[in-house]
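User: Design a sequence. Structure:
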């Protein structure tokens, strides 16, 4: 009998049915800072460090969800971006359908089911469970109600009237979940199905006045192009995308190439002032341009570059992504997208993911709300493409990021005091070299450690003395 009981417990654990019930945890609501540039939570700076877990709800069982969320918590992430419905025929790991007869206006809710039960739950209870589990771990969930491809489908599965019913269902179901952020859209231009996106956004705003709402656009575009002045949009995001400079040939999009800091520049100068961030840069281990799996793949150095470039340009945070993790590639899958070769539970510890916490810690290491981009700190040429230098400063400090580690010159006029302390921050390890204090002159030349090359990135830290 003992052997039989042990076998059953092991079997349940294997399929994800053995878990500890979760209670709702109340996290402090995220708000816009007083200067409208950043986020704050519980009257403290909140630096958005997101991970892309798009298919978390549909692909992972409860034991796997626990493993994923715990890993990201330990790595310092605080926001998970996830699709609620990726397909009009959406089902989850357990075979539960999200909708009745693929009707977006009819979520398939089982009356009397228990989100924390080992067996008595439906698709939405499973979503509840994971959202609550994330809250227990201090993680916020940026939920995409319905992916853009579903709305754009030839069958017109999501007209505005049905979208309103669905958005009302979501807003009422998650109004008391303090860790929910709404991410309208989903890899689609706001000019496509604009009425649907505005309907979803305004419905969510009416029912959830205390929750933040944004929009996730298609590659090489930004939400502010279409929705900056909409009352439902609290902050902007952009998708700098997965293409290289050479692949940036679309006539419809801005020719920014890999320069994701340019999107921040545009949003930063818009009124009314709203926070902005890169919600989908190139993912670690995804092929250049996505579709040709024979091409090279983006590496940790690339995701670091996108992070520091955008944040130093004035972004309120940054979202990391990994090819294997975003699609939750598993051994049981019949195939994979974008040439994914490894499984999510292997790639969750890839170098880029582990290095993101250093960006977060650096930005929280100095005064936060007074930070601003300041390219006047760069004396002389700022460089182009990979040699481009990004500078940001607060009242008594400044950071300068170089991706290639080439020598550069800094104009110190923006910093107070007669002396200046300089040190080097390593984005790969988070280690800071011992500082050197010297008299402040009009310009000072700095030579980063190591040989100049792509990926020999450093942050120069300057503190006024």
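Assistant: Done.
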């Amino acid at each position: 009998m003992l052997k039989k009981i042990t076998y059953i417990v092991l079997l349940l654990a294997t399929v994800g049915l053995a878990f500890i019930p979760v209670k709702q945890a109340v996290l402090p609501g995220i708000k816009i800072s007083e200067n409208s540039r950043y986020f704050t939570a519980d009257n403290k700076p909140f630096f958005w460090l997101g991970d892309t877990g798009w298919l978390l709800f549909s692909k992972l069982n409860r034991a796997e969800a626990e493993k994923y969320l715990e890993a990201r918590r330990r790595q310092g992430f605080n926001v998970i971006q996830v699709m609620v419905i990726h397909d009009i025929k959406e089902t989850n790991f357990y075979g539960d359908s999200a909708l009745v007869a693929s009707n977006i206006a009819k979520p398939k809710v089982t009356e009397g089911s228990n989100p924390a039960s080992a067996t008595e739950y439906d698709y939405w209870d499973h979503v509840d469970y994971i959202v609550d589990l994330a809250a227990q771990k201090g993680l916020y969930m940026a939920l995409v109600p319905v992916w853009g491809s579903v709305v754009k489908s030839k069958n017109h599965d999501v007209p505005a009237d049905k979208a309103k019913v669905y958005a009302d269902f979501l807003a009422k179901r998650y109004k008391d979940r303090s860790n929910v952020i709404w991410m309208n859209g989903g890899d689609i231009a706001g000019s496509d199905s604009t009425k649907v996106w505005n309907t979803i956004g305004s419905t969510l705003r009416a029912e959830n006045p205390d929750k933040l709402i944004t929009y996730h656009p298609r590659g090489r575009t930004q939400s502010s192009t279409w929705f900056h002045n909409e009352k439902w949009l609290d902050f902007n995001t952009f998708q700098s995308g997965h293409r290289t400079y050479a692949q940036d040939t679309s006539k419809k999009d801005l020719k920014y190439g890999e320069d994701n800091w340019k999107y921040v520049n545009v949003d930063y100068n818009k009124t009314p002032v709203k926070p902005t961030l890169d919600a989908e840069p190139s993912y670690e281990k995804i092929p250049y341009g996505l579709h040709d799996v024979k091409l090279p793949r983006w590496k940790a150095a690339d995701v670091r570059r996108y992070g520091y470039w955008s944040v130093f340009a004035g972004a309120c945070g940054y979202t990391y992504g990994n090819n294997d993790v975003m699609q939750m590639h598993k051994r049981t899958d019949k195939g994979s997208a974008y040439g994914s070769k490894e499984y999510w539970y292997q790639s969750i510890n890839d170098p880029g993911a582990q290095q993101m916490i250093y960006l977060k810690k650096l930005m929280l290491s100095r005064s936060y709300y007074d930070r601003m981009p300041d390219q006047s700190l760069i004396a002389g040429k700022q460089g182009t493409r990979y040699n481009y230098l990004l500078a940001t400063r607060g009242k008594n400090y400044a950071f300068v990021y170089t991706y290639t580690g080439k020598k550069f010159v800094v104009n110190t006029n923006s910093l107070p005091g007669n002396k200046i302390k300089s040190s080097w921050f390593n984005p790969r390890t988070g280690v800071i070299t011992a500082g050197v204090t010297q008299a402040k002159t009009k310009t000072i030349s700095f030579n980063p450690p190591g040989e100049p090359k792509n990926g020999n990135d450093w942050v120069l830290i300057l503190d006024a003395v």
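The first helix runs from residue 2 to 15. The chain has two domains: 23-363, 374-464.
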